[in-house]
Amino acid sequence: MITLISYFVLLLAALTLTTFLFISLNKIQLI
């Protein structure tokens, strides 16, 4: 159970990081 929760947290963190990186790239292209 703990492993499943840890995996879910890791997946959520990766998704957030990817989204933040994508937004940063879009802002750089706009400039």
From TrEMBL:
Component of the cytochrome b6-f complex, which mediates electron transfer between photosystem II (PSII) and photosystem I (PSI), cyclic electron flow around PSI, and state transitions. PetL is important for photoautotrophic growth as well as for electron transfer efficiency and stability of the cytochrome b6-f complex. Belongs to the PetL family. The chain crosses the membrane at residues 6-25. Pfam families: PetL. The gene is petL. PANTHER family: CYTOCHROME B6-F COMPLEX SUBUNIT 6. The 4 large subunits of the cytochrome b6-f complex are cytochrome b6, subunit IV (17 kDa polypeptide, PetD), cytochrome f and the Rieske protein, while the 4 small subunits are PetG, PetL, PetM and PetN. The complex functions as a dimer. One of its GO terms (biological process) is photosynthesis. Keywords: Chloroplast, Electron transport, Membrane, Photosynthesis, Plastid, Thylakoid, Transmembrane, Transmembrane helix, Transport. Its main location: membrane. This is Cytochrome b6-f complex subunit 6. It is found in: Cellular thylakoid membrane; Plastid thylakoid membrane. GO terms for molecular function: electron transfer activity. It is a single-pass membrane protein. GO terms for cellular component: cytochrome b6f complex; plastid thylakoid membrane.
